[in-house]
User: What shape does this take?
Amino acid sequence: MEKDDKPISMKHLPHKTIERLSQYRRALLICLDQGQTHIYSHEIAKIQHITAVQVRRDLMLIGYTGTLRKGYNVSELIDLIGSIIDAGEGIRVAIVGMGNLGRALINYFSGKRSRLSISASFDTNPDKIGRTMSGVPCYSLEDMNEIIARENIKIGIMTVPAAAALTVAEKLVQAGIKGILNYTPKPVYVPKDVYLEEYDMITSLEKVAFYVKMQEVD
Ligand code: ATP
Assistant: This one.
């Protein structure tokens, strides 16, 4: 199977498709490491716990279809997904709130094969400002505009307490950030041209706990 003309503008890919493309690539990289050159949609589906129809639909959206006989070419597909979801020269990221979660995220990211690099962090705690933690310098919030412009940082990750969420999001937007990943349980507001992803771990855990409880009730 070959790469076709891309059927829809990549800008209009559904958010969930983007998420799954990232997951497919991670799974495909493992397959490549294990020497697998081709893969069928139902194999990807099994790894991701979704249907083969969903996989085929996502890959058709990016203009890729497999052959019936051999399936998808693993390395071709990795490159194609990369050309769609990766930023050409990489994107710089800042973390606001160098508490336990902020530091854990930096440690988790460091050394991972990624075009995203955490270049700066911000905090209000004077004991943290001016220090370098896990290789990332920590600055005062007051220096945010200057550092974000100087370092060409495009994404802000928020790991501050919920009470600080709204003001921190506002500051990030003012500083020219184009995307925010909000780890606080407090929803924030951003203008249309800023992409916002909210990930509230407490809600996710409560959802899991709810289903565990339901199973016990049955
Ligand atoms: P620690 O004990 O190291 O402070 P923690 O995980 O208990 O860690 P939290 O209270 O969750 O800390 O706060 C997370 C981080 O956010 C802390 O480093 C805190 O200093 C910082 N912080 C709090 N308010 C703000 C704010 N308005 N702007 C930026 N950072 C903030």
